Amino acid sequence: MSQIPQFLVDNLFTTSATTSRPHITLTWAQSLDSKIAGPGGQRVILSGPESMLMTHWMRSMHDAILIGVNTLILDNPRLQANLLPPSLNLPPPQPLILDPKLRFPITSRILNEWNTKPDQRGKTMRQPWIICGENVPTERVREVEGAGARVVLVKLDDRAHIPPSSLPSILTSLGLRSVMIEGGSRILSTFLHCPKRDDGSKLVNSVVVTVAPMFIGEGIGVVPEGEDVGLPALKTVHTEKMGKDAVMICAVE
Ligand SMILES: NC(=O)C1=CN([C@@H]2O[C@H](COP(=O)(O)OP(=O)(O)OC[C@H]3O[C@@H](n4cnc5c(N)ncnc54)[C@H](O)[C@@H]3O)[C@@H](O)[C@H]2O)C=CC1
Ligand SMILES: Nc1nc(O)c(N)c(N[C@@H]2O[C@H](COP(=O)(O)O)[C@@H](O)[C@H]2O)n1
């Protein structure tokens, strides 16, 4: 697959085509028993080579990739589109971490690679941007910025979370027109449970799920236990078989 999958071009951004508001895609890979990771949050490779490559194409189609700080701590991901042919010179997506208390480990791979591969800056990677609460102590902000990341301070909600409804305006203030939210479980849950943006429009534009034909058993669910009520209705926009996996593109009703 040396070209962008046509079904993504045809179906991903159609749900926000008539608006200038930032496009929000929620995406994850899951097992047949609706798990996204193993016991204790252990990372599981669910996607086969074809759907993993598709995920990297999807990363390159968005301005930013967002994960929660637990996923950063547990998976230590790279969040790049490194499976795509380098000859295409595609702009790398901007990594965003939702991290209310600024727990961001300065030893993380996304920061280490940013610091140790200056020749790749802007070519295959961008500086990690960490979105945290405005009440985080200044010394801690200085420490993380001194280590090379950018810290963005925002107002937290009454659960001490970054309010999902305010993400679109945060994105706009950062000059980002689209975001692919990859997880984990808590982040997916709060975004799925929050129907509207601060301006009253629909929050999530697209949901893209890779379903792998395997069972995990004990593990981390798509949403945390007890949070599987009040989830929105989805409408299937497209289904594609990719190698062993099925990929569904849905719109939130
Ligand atoms: N299979 C897949 O596609 C993926 C799997 N994962 C898995 O997910 C697991 C991590 O999931 P979780 O522990 O649930 O952590 P998470 O990655 O969802 O991060 C949760 C943390 O994000 C912060 N946060 C900021 N704003 C928030 C908001 N509005 N709502 C909720 N939290 C907010 C809080 O500090 C919270 O503790 C890992 O095991 C990882 O492997 C993660 C991404 C994709
Ligand atoms: N699409 C997909 N398939 C899987 O099987 C996965 N485990 C994930 N996990 C997500 O990808 C991140 C790792 O990314 P890098 O390869 O290190 O860039 C991980 O943190 C999850 O967000 N995704």
Describe the structure in your own words.
The model has no long low-confidence stretch (mean pLDDT 96). This protein is 23% helix and 25% strand. The protein is globular, with a radius of gyration of 17 Å. It has 253 residues and is α/β, with parallel strands linked by helices. It contains seven helices and eleven strands. A nine-stranded mixed sheet has the order 6-5-4-3-7-1-8-11-10, with helices on both faces. Strand 10 and strand 11 (245-252) form a beta hairpin. It binds 1,4-dihydronicotinamide adenine dinucleotide and the ligand Nc1nc(O)c(N)c(N[C@@H]2O[C@H](COP(=O)(O)O)[C@@H](O)[C@H]2O)n1. The ligand Nc1nc(O)c(N)c(N[C@@H]2O[C@H](COP(=O)(O)O)[C@@H](O)[C@H]2O)n1 binds at residues 29, 43-47, 52, 55, 67, 71, 75, 77-80, 182-183, 210. Residues 28-29, 36-37, 41, 43, 46, 67-71, 74-75, 98, 100, 161-162, 164, 182-187, 190, 220 line the site of 1,4-dihydronicotinamide adenine dinucleotide.
